[in-house]
Amino acid sequence: MRSYCIHAFGEPLVGDDRPIPEVSGTEVLIKVEAAGVCHSDLHLWDGGYDLGLGRKLSLKDRGVALPLTMGHETAGELVAVGPDAGGVDIGASYLVYPWIGCGECRSCRDGYENYCAKATYIGVHLHGGYAEYVRVPHPRYLLPIGDLDPAQVAPLACSGVTTYSALKKFGDQIAEHPVVVVGGGGLGQMCLQILRALGGKGAVVVDLDPVKREAALAAGALAAVDGGAPDVATLVMDAVGGPAHCVLDLVGSPQSAALGFDALAKGGTLVMVGLFGGNTPWSLPLIPIKAARILGSLVGNLEEMRELVALARAGRIQPIPVTRMPLDRANDALLALRNGLVVGRAVLCP
Ligand SMILES: [Zn+2]
Ligand SMILES: [Zn+2]
To answer: How far apart are the CA of 228 and the centre of ligand 2, in A?
Structure first.
Protein backbone atom coordinates (compact mmCIF):
# COMPACT_ATOMS: atom_id res chain seq x y z
CA MET A 1 0.00 0.00 0.00
CA ARG A 2 1.02 3.60 -0.54
CA SER A 3 1.81 5.68 2.54
CA TYR A 4 3.43 9.07 3.09
CA CYS A 5 5.96 9.01 5.90
CA ILE A 6 8.31 11.27 7.81
CA HIS A 7 11.78 9.76 7.44
CA ALA A 8 13.56 12.82 8.83
CA PHE A 9 12.00 15.73 10.76
CA GLY A 10 11.69 18.82 8.58
CA GLU A 11 12.29 16.93 5.31
CA PRO A 12 9.55 16.31 2.70
CA LEU A 13 7.40 13.24 3.35
CA VAL A 14 8.46 10.16 1.39
CA GLY A 15 5.93 8.07 -0.53
CA ASP A 16 6.62 4.49 0.58
CA ASP A 17 5.13 1.23 -0.66
CA ARG A 18 4.60 -1.05 2.31
CA PRO A 19 2.62 -4.23 2.94
CA ILE A 20 -1.03 -3.78 3.95
CA PRO A 21 -1.02 -4.17 7.78
CA GLU A 22 -2.24 -7.52 9.10
CA VAL A 23 -4.65 -7.59 12.03
CA SER A 24 -4.47 -9.84 15.07
CA GLY A 25 -6.20 -9.93 18.48
CA THR A 26 -8.54 -6.97 18.83
CA GLU A 27 -7.05 -5.02 15.92
CA VAL A 28 -9.13 -3.72 13.03
CA LEU A 29 -8.19 -2.42 9.59
CA ILE A 30 -9.67 0.66 7.95
CA LYS A 31 -9.37 1.39 4.22
CA VAL A 32 -8.71 5.13 4.34
CA GLU A 33 -11.16 7.29 2.43
CA ALA A 34 -10.22 10.59 4.05
CA ALA A 35 -7.30 11.85 6.13
CA GLY A 36 -7.45 15.43 7.39
CA VAL A 37 -4.27 17.52 7.33
CA CYS A 38 -3.97 19.23 10.70
CA HIS A 39 -1.85 22.09 12.03
CA SER A 40 -0.37 19.76 14.62
CA ASP A 41 0.95 17.68 11.71
CA LEU A 42 3.15 20.68 10.89
CA HIS A 43 4.67 20.53 14.38
CA LEU A 44 5.09 16.80 14.10
CA TRP A 45 6.76 17.23 10.72
CA ASP A 46 9.10 19.84 12.27
CA GLY A 47 9.82 17.52 15.19
CA GLY A 48 8.67 19.72 18.03
CA TYR A 49 7.14 22.84 19.53
CA ASP A 50 8.61 26.24 20.30
CA LEU A 51 8.34 26.64 24.09
CA GLY A 52 9.60 30.22 24.03
CA LEU A 53 12.71 31.67 25.70
CA GLY A 54 14.84 29.67 23.28
CA ARG A 55 13.52 26.27 24.41
CA LYS A 56 12.00 23.57 22.23
CA LEU A 57 9.84 20.55 23.03
CA SER A 58 11.35 17.68 21.05
CA LEU A 59 8.94 15.00 19.88
CA LYS A 60 11.86 12.61 19.36
CA ASP A 61 12.51 12.83 23.12
CA ARG A 62 8.78 12.27 23.67
CA GLY A 63 8.82 8.85 22.04
CA VAL A 64 7.96 9.69 18.42
CA ALA A 65 9.88 7.16 16.32
CA LEU A 66 10.62 7.45 12.60
CA PRO A 67 9.68 6.56 9.94
CA LEU A 68 6.15 7.63 10.81
CA THR A 69 2.99 7.90 8.74
CA MET A 70 1.17 11.00 9.96
CA GLY A 71 -2.61 11.44 9.90
CA HIS A 72 -4.81 11.50 13.02
CA GLU A 73 -8.07 12.57 11.33
CA THR A 74 -9.00 9.39 9.54
CA ALA A 75 -12.28 8.01 8.23
CA GLY A 76 -12.97 5.08 5.95
CA GLU A 77 -14.37 1.61 5.46
CA LEU A 78 -13.78 -1.29 7.85
CA VAL A 79 -12.22 -4.08 5.78
CA ALA A 80 -10.72 -6.56 8.28
CA VAL A 81 -11.03 -7.46 11.96
CA GLY A 82 -8.84 -9.53 14.27
CA PRO A 83 -10.29 -12.69 15.90
CA ASP A 84 -11.04 -10.83 19.15
CA ALA A 85 -12.56 -7.69 17.62
CA GLY A 86 -16.34 -7.64 17.83
CA GLY A 87 -19.25 -5.22 17.60
CA VAL A 88 -18.30 -3.61 14.29
CA ASP A 89 -19.45 -4.27 10.73
CA ILE A 90 -17.15 -5.02 7.81
CA GLY A 91 -18.06 -2.71 4.93
CA ALA A 92 -19.44 0.04 7.19
CA SER A 93 -17.89 3.52 7.42
CA TYR A 94 -16.17 4.70 10.58
CA LEU A 95 -14.32 7.64 12.03
CA VAL A 96 -11.18 6.64 13.95
CA TYR A 97 -10.64 8.04 17.48
CA PRO A 98 -6.87 8.57 17.48
CA TRP A 99 -6.05 9.74 21.05
CA ILE A 100 -5.38 6.29 22.44
CA GLY A 101 -3.84 5.67 25.87
CA CYS A 102 -2.40 2.67 27.70
CA GLY A 103 -5.83 1.69 29.03
CA GLU A 104 -4.44 0.98 32.51
CA CYS A 105 -3.40 4.23 34.20
CA ARG A 106 -5.69 6.44 36.25
CA SER A 107 -6.35 8.86 33.36
CA CYS A 108 -7.29 6.03 31.01
CA ARG A 109 -9.52 4.35 33.60
CA ASP A 110 -11.25 7.69 34.20
CA GLY A 111 -12.02 7.95 30.50
CA TYR A 112 -9.28 10.44 29.64
CA GLU A 113 -7.04 8.40 27.37
CA ASN A 114 -6.06 11.71 25.77
CA TYR A 115 -4.19 12.55 29.02
CA CYS A 116 -2.31 9.23 29.22
CA ALA A 117 1.44 9.58 29.86
CA LYS A 118 2.07 6.46 27.74
CA ALA A 119 -0.07 7.58 24.82
CA THR A 120 -0.06 5.66 21.55
CA TYR A 121 -1.83 8.23 19.41
CA ILE A 122 -2.62 7.16 15.86
CA GLY A 123 -0.66 9.32 13.42
CA VAL A 124 1.80 10.37 16.15
CA HIS A 125 3.09 7.17 17.79
CA LEU A 126 1.29 4.61 15.60
CA HIS A 127 1.10 4.86 11.80
CA GLY A 128 -1.77 7.11 10.76
CA GLY A 129 -4.05 7.95 7.90
CA TYR A 130 -1.71 9.39 5.24
CA ALA A 131 -1.93 5.92 3.70
CA GLU A 132 -4.29 3.58 1.93
CA TYR A 133 -4.94 1.57 5.11
CA VAL A 134 -4.66 2.23 8.82
CA ARG A 135 -4.60 -0.33 11.61
CA VAL A 136 -6.48 0.50 14.83
CA PRO A 137 -5.78 -1.41 18.09
CA HIS A 138 -9.41 -1.98 19.14
CA PRO A 139 -12.91 -1.58 17.66
CA ARG A 140 -13.89 0.71 20.57
CA TYR A 141 -11.99 3.47 18.75
CA LEU A 142 -14.25 3.21 15.70
CA LEU A 143 -17.28 5.52 15.59
CA PRO A 144 -19.92 4.61 13.00
CA ILE A 145 -20.68 7.53 10.66
CA GLY A 146 -23.53 6.01 8.65
CA ASP A 147 -23.73 7.61 5.24
CA LEU A 148 -21.99 10.87 6.20
CA ASP A 149 -19.19 11.89 3.83
CA PRO A 150 -15.86 10.59 5.24
CA ALA A 151 -14.01 13.71 4.00
CA GLN A 152 -16.33 15.96 5.95
CA VAL A 153 -16.36 13.77 9.05
CA ALA A 154 -12.59 13.16 9.29
CA PRO A 155 -11.76 16.58 10.80
CA LEU A 156 -14.05 15.80 13.75
CA ALA A 157 -11.32 13.49 15.11
CA CYS A 158 -9.02 16.40 15.91
CA SER A 159 -10.20 19.89 15.09
CA GLY A 160 -13.78 18.90 15.89
CA VAL A 161 -13.25 17.15 19.21
CA THR A 162 -10.64 19.74 20.21
CA THR A 163 -13.04 22.63 19.81
CA TYR A 164 -15.92 20.61 21.29
CA SER A 165 -13.93 19.78 24.43
CA ALA A 166 -12.61 23.35 24.70
CA LEU A 167 -16.08 24.91 24.41
CA LYS A 168 -17.46 22.50 27.01
CA LYS A 169 -14.88 23.89 29.46
CA PHE A 170 -16.85 27.18 29.54
CA GLY A 171 -19.85 25.25 30.92
CA ASP A 172 -23.19 27.08 30.74
CA GLN A 173 -21.39 30.46 30.35
CA ILE A 174 -21.68 30.01 26.57
CA ALA A 175 -25.45 30.41 26.76
CA GLU A 176 -25.06 33.86 28.35
CA HIS A 177 -21.88 35.31 26.89
CA PRO A 178 -20.41 35.51 23.41
CA VAL A 179 -17.22 33.48 23.07
CA VAL A 180 -14.22 35.36 21.69
CA VAL A 181 -12.59 32.93 19.27
CA VAL A 182 -9.03 33.93 18.41
CA GLY A 183 -8.19 32.23 15.11
CA GLY A 184 -10.66 31.82 12.25
CA GLY A 185 -9.08 28.87 10.40
CA GLY A 186 -10.33 25.28 10.40
CA LEU A 187 -10.81 25.17 14.17
CA GLY A 188 -12.53 28.54 14.21
CA GLN A 189 -14.99 27.40 11.53
CA MET A 190 -15.68 24.23 13.48
CA CYS A 191 -16.15 26.27 16.63
CA LEU A 192 -18.98 28.31 15.10
CA GLN A 193 -20.85 25.15 14.17
CA ILE A 194 -20.41 23.46 17.53
CA LEU A 195 -21.25 26.59 19.48
CA ARG A 196 -24.57 26.80 17.66
CA ALA A 197 -25.27 23.10 18.23
CA LEU A 198 -24.59 23.55 21.97
CA GLY A 199 -26.99 26.49 22.22
CA GLY A 200 -24.26 29.11 22.57
CA LYS A 201 -24.95 32.83 22.28
CA GLY A 202 -22.44 33.19 19.46
CA ALA A 203 -18.83 34.02 18.66
CA VAL A 204 -16.69 37.07 18.03
CA VAL A 205 -13.94 35.80 15.74
CA VAL A 206 -10.50 37.44 15.57
CA ASP A 207 -8.20 36.79 12.62
CA LEU A 208 -5.45 38.62 10.72
CA ASP A 209 -6.75 37.37 7.38
CA PRO A 210 -9.73 39.20 5.81
CA VAL A 211 -10.69 36.03 3.91
CA LYS A 212 -11.03 34.11 7.17
CA ARG A 213 -12.97 36.99 8.75
CA GLU A 214 -15.39 36.92 5.79
CA ALA A 215 -15.73 33.14 6.13
CA ALA A 216 -16.47 33.53 9.85
CA LEU A 217 -19.21 36.10 9.20
CA ALA A 218 -20.67 33.91 6.45
CA ALA A 219 -20.75 31.02 8.95
CA GLY A 220 -22.72 33.09 11.44
CA ALA A 221 -20.15 34.82 13.68
CA LEU A 222 -21.62 37.77 15.61
CA ALA A 223 -18.64 39.90 14.56
CA ALA A 224 -15.19 39.49 13.03
CA VAL A 225 -12.29 41.62 14.27
CA ASP A 226 -8.97 42.29 12.54
CA GLY A 227 -6.31 40.76 14.80
CA GLY A 228 -3.74 43.13 13.30
CA ALA A 229 -5.55 46.33 14.34
CA PRO A 230 -3.56 48.41 16.86
CA ASP A 231 -6.53 48.63 19.26
CA VAL A 232 -7.65 45.04 18.78
CA ALA A 233 -8.51 44.39 22.47
CA THR A 234 -10.81 47.44 22.47
CA LEU A 235 -12.43 46.34 19.22
CA VAL A 236 -13.02 42.87 20.69
CA MET A 237 -14.57 44.30 23.86
CA ASP A 238 -16.78 46.60 21.78
CA ALA A 239 -18.00 43.60 19.79
CA VAL A 240 -18.67 41.58 22.95
CA GLY A 241 -20.33 44.49 24.74
CA GLY A 242 -17.70 44.64 27.52
CA PRO A 243 -14.80 42.54 28.79
CA ALA A 244 -15.10 38.93 27.67
CA HIS A 245 -16.16 36.14 30.01
CA CYS A 246 -15.18 33.41 27.56
CA VAL A 247 -12.09 33.54 25.37
CA LEU A 248 -10.88 30.63 23.29
CA ASP A 249 -7.34 30.99 21.95
CA LEU A 250 -6.99 28.70 18.96
CA VAL A 251 -3.64 30.23 17.94
CA GLY A 252 -1.39 30.06 20.98
CA SER A 253 1.07 32.79 20.04
CA PRO A 254 2.32 35.55 22.39
CA GLN A 255 0.06 38.00 20.48
CA SER A 256 -3.08 35.87 20.68
CA ALA A 257 -2.47 35.06 24.35
CA ALA A 258 -1.95 38.76 25.13
CA LEU A 259 -5.17 39.66 23.36
CA GLY A 260 -7.13 36.92 25.10
CA PHE A 261 -5.84 37.95 28.50
CA ASP A 262 -6.28 41.71 27.95
CA ALA A 263 -9.88 41.27 26.77
CA LEU A 264 -10.78 38.97 29.67
CA ALA A 265 -13.38 40.06 32.25
CA LYS A 266 -12.84 39.60 35.99
CA GLY A 267 -13.62 35.99 36.74
CA GLY A 268 -13.47 35.22 33.03
CA THR A 269 -12.12 32.02 31.51
CA LEU A 270 -9.39 31.80 28.90
CA VAL A 271 -9.16 28.35 27.28
CA MET A 272 -5.94 27.77 25.38
CA VAL A 273 -5.80 25.29 22.53
CA GLY A 274 -3.39 26.62 19.89
CA LEU A 275 0.21 25.45 19.81
CA PHE A 276 1.82 28.15 17.72
CA GLY A 277 4.53 28.59 20.36
CA GLY A 278 6.34 31.16 22.43
CA ASN A 279 5.93 32.39 25.98
CA THR A 280 3.27 34.46 27.71
CA PRO A 281 3.40 38.24 27.92
CA TRP A 282 1.10 38.53 30.97
CA SER A 283 1.88 40.42 34.14
CA LEU A 284 1.58 37.89 36.94
CA PRO A 285 -0.29 40.17 39.42
CA LEU A 286 -3.07 40.60 36.86
CA ILE A 287 -3.91 36.90 37.04
CA PRO A 288 -5.21 37.16 40.65
CA ILE A 289 -6.46 40.73 40.16
CA LYS A 290 -8.63 39.56 37.27
CA ALA A 291 -9.42 36.28 39.08
CA ALA A 292 -8.66 34.80 35.68
CA ARG A 293 -9.23 31.14 34.97
CA ILE A 294 -6.69 29.96 32.41
CA LEU A 295 -7.21 26.43 31.17
CA GLY A 296 -5.35 24.34 28.64
CA SER A 297 -7.37 21.94 26.51
CA LEU A 298 -5.83 18.99 24.70
CA VAL A 299 -7.94 17.29 22.01
CA GLY A 300 -10.88 15.50 23.68
CA ASN A 301 -11.80 12.14 25.13
CA LEU A 302 -13.64 9.23 23.51
CA GLU A 303 -16.94 10.13 25.15
CA GLU A 304 -16.73 13.70 23.82
CA MET A 305 -15.98 12.33 20.36
CA ARG A 306 -19.10 10.11 20.59
CA GLU A 307 -21.21 13.13 21.59
CA LEU A 308 -19.80 15.14 18.71
CA VAL A 309 -20.39 12.40 16.10
CA ALA A 310 -23.96 12.09 17.41
CA LEU A 311 -24.45 15.84 16.77
CA ALA A 312 -23.05 15.43 13.25
CA ARG A 313 -25.26 12.41 12.52
CA ALA A 314 -28.30 14.32 13.78
CA GLY A 315 -27.50 17.05 11.23
CA ARG A 316 -26.83 19.64 13.95
CA ILE A 317 -23.32 20.39 12.68
CA GLN A 318 -23.08 21.48 9.08
CA PRO A 319 -19.96 20.33 7.23
CA ILE A 320 -17.08 22.81 7.19
CA PRO A 321 -15.50 23.52 3.80
CA VAL A 322 -12.98 20.86 2.86
CA THR A 323 -10.41 20.84 0.08
CA ARG A 324 -9.94 17.29 -1.21
CA MET A 325 -6.47 16.36 -2.44
CA PRO A 326 -5.05 13.05 -3.66
CA LEU A 327 -2.76 11.19 -1.24
CA ASP A 328 0.32 11.82 -3.38
CA ARG A 329 -0.08 15.57 -2.74
CA ALA A 330 0.49 15.18 1.01
CA ASN A 331 3.54 17.48 0.91
CA ASP A 332 1.65 20.15 -1.05
CA ALA A 333 -1.19 19.98 1.46
CA LEU A 334 1.18 20.55 4.38
CA LEU A 335 2.90 23.46 2.63
CA ALA A 336 -0.44 25.06 1.73
CA LEU A 337 -1.49 24.79 5.38
CA ARG A 338 1.80 26.27 6.58
CA ASN A 339 1.41 29.19 4.18
CA GLY A 340 -2.15 29.89 5.34
CA LEU A 341 -3.63 29.02 1.92
CA VAL A 342 -6.24 26.52 3.13
CA VAL A 343 -9.77 27.74 3.95
CA GLY A 344 -11.50 25.09 6.06
CA ARG A 345 -9.65 21.79 5.98
CA ALA A 346 -7.36 20.03 3.54
CA VAL A 347 -8.30 16.34 3.37
CA LEU A 348 -6.25 13.67 1.60
CA CYS A 349 -8.42 11.16 -0.23
CA PRO A 350 -6.40 8.08 -1.29
ZN1 LIG B 1 -2.99 5.41 30.26
ZN1 LIG C 1 -4.78 17.58 14.85
So the answer is: 26
